[in-house]
């Protein structure tokens, strides 16, 4: 119960979204499930800031913007967003149901995510870059702020999960590296999450942009190399008989939230829709291909781990890294590959969630601290406008204070929760996969699409008419109610 309360407390800063009708742009800087990206809001998209080139009325007809990117490039965007730290969690929850049942469940979850992703693309159209903008365009500003709160809560839960797992994965925190006395102190006082956040979080948010980008690119390369090595080395060790063991269907509900988190890609769908200029055929193809490849990767990974270690007893399924530890124990080469892959996946996923929170909370803190809302990100190309040197200094101090406050809101709440509940990796993913993500990317898009379809000129992309929308809404609501009932019981 304490861990559940503390996990919910990590999302309390989102309550400031309801302090007023603040225009909060909700643009995902990165994917919270996989690698970090480089999607930044434009200068003119920040509410309350002056346009360098104000709009001018003209009778000249401006041609439609051509599609930006191809099906292949946008499929890669979707796939890169999915593959990340979710791979680490899957073996811990797929062992008890067994390979066949868990793989079948992943295919079903993928089908649901694909349908909801098409719905998100329908609501996004060509110009809406976030679920908040979709909600404001269909239901109203209050709904937009509520969607902003759900988005922030999702990222906070993921931050808790990544910090908990990262604190136990970094080799610097092991006795052979820092000595038994230091390791014992970190374990007794739960200091590993604090050190992980201080090292990894401070570098990502305060480090030079070029260094962070280069480090992220290098880590993504390590993920690809180490994962390929794991599959190539592990496949010859797979015992087919272990894959056919009798499954325990009663453990399937515990697997579904983690699978849903691992297969979620809807956060990048607005970017895909904009890149392809709202072309429904290309969008559907990009989503199907981009999400289908990670699905096959997850199933292959599931086969390697379970075929090498066997299905777990249901009572031991809560042990987070036991399947990976069992796989690593089979050979020194696999142990090294598992370590490299785990660390790289956790850091890149942590950076993605941190960047997303940083952008959203910076806009919020800036609006609350001053009427002048001037961006602070050099990479976005935003520069303060001041009349004299004194005002420039004031703006610089203001921006520095905003960045400090936003950094504290990004890092402190999830770090405190991770220190209090260091074994909350799966628990945090459970909350995200049971409540936040199904609402944010399932139930809400279905409701928004229903309102949008009642207007003129709206093009439906999900087949089935109102019945298709009702199917997504009913399945999502039933899933949330079912999972809640099981956990209450």
TrEMBL record:
It is a multi-pass membrane protein. Keywords: Cell inner membrane, Cell membrane, Membrane, Signal, Transmembrane, Transmembrane helix, Transport. GO terms for biological process: amino acid transmembrane transport. The chain crosses the membrane at residues 99-121, 142-163, 189-207, 214-234, 254-273, 285-306, 326-359, 462-482. Its main location: membrane. It is found in: Cell inner membrane. This is Aromatic amino acid permease. It comes from Ectocarpus siliculosus (Brown alga).
């Amino acid at each position: 119960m304490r861990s559940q309360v503390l996990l919910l407390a990590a999302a309390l800063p989102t309550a400031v979204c309801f302090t007023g009708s603040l225009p909060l742009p909700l643009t995902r800087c990165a994917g919270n499930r996989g690698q970090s990206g480089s999607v930044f809001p434009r200068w003119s998209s920040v509410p309350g800031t002056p346009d360098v080139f104000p709009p001018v009325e003209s009778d000249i007809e401006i041609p439609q913007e051509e599609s930006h990117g191809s099906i292949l490039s946008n499929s890669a965007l979707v796939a890169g967003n999915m593959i990340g730290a979710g791979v680490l969690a899957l073996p811990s929850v797929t062992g008890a149901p067994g390979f066949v049942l868990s793989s079948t469940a992943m295919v079903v979850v993928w089908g649901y995510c694909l349908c909801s992703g098409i719905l998100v693309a329908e609501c996004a159209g060509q110009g809406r870059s976030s679920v908040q903008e979709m909600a404001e365009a269909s239901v109203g500003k209050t709904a937009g702020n509520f969607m902003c709160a759900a988005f922030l809560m999702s990222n906070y839960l993921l931050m808790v999960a990544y910090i908990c797992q990262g604190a136990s994965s970094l080799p610097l925190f092991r006795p052979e590296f820092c000595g038994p006395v230091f390791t014992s102190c970190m374990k007794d006082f739960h200091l590993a999450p604090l050190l992980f956040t201080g090292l990894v979080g401070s570098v990502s948010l305060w480090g030079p942009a070029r260094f962070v980008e280069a480090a992220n690119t290098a880590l993504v390369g390590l993920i690809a190399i180490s994962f390929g090595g794991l599959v190539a080395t592990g496949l010859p060790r797979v015992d087919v008989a272990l894959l056919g063991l009798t499954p325990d269907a009663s453990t399937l509900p515990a697997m579904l939230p983690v699978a849903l988190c691992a297969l979620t890609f809807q956060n990048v769908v607005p970017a895909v829709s904009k890149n392809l200029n709202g072309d429904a055929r290309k969008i559907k193809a990009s989503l199907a291909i981009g999400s289908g490849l990670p699905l096959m990767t997850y199933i292959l990974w599931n086969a390697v781990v379970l075929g090498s270690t066997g299905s777990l007893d249901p009572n031991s399924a809560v042990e987070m890294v036991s399947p990976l530890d069992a796989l690593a124990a089979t050979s020194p080469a696999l142990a090294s590959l598992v370590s490299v892959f785990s660390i790289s996946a956790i850091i890149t996923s942590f950076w993605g969630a941190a960047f997303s929170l940083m952008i959203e909370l910076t806009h919020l803190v800036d609006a609350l601290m001053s009427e002048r809302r001037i961006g602070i990100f050099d990479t976005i190309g935003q520069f303060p406008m001041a009349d004299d040197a004194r005002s420039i200094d004031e703006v610089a101090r203001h921006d520095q204070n905003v960045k400090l406050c936003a950094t504290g809101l990004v890092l402190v709440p999830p770090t405190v929760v991770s220190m209090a509940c260091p074994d909350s990796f799966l628990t945090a993913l459970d909350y995200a996969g049971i409540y936040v993500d199904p609402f944010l990317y399932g139930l809400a898009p279905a409701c928004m699409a229903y309102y949008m379809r009642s207007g003129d000129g709206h093009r439906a992309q999900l087949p089935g008419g109102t019945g298709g929308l009702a199917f997504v809404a009913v399945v999502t609501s039933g899933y949330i109610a079912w999972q809640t009932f099981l956990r209450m019981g």
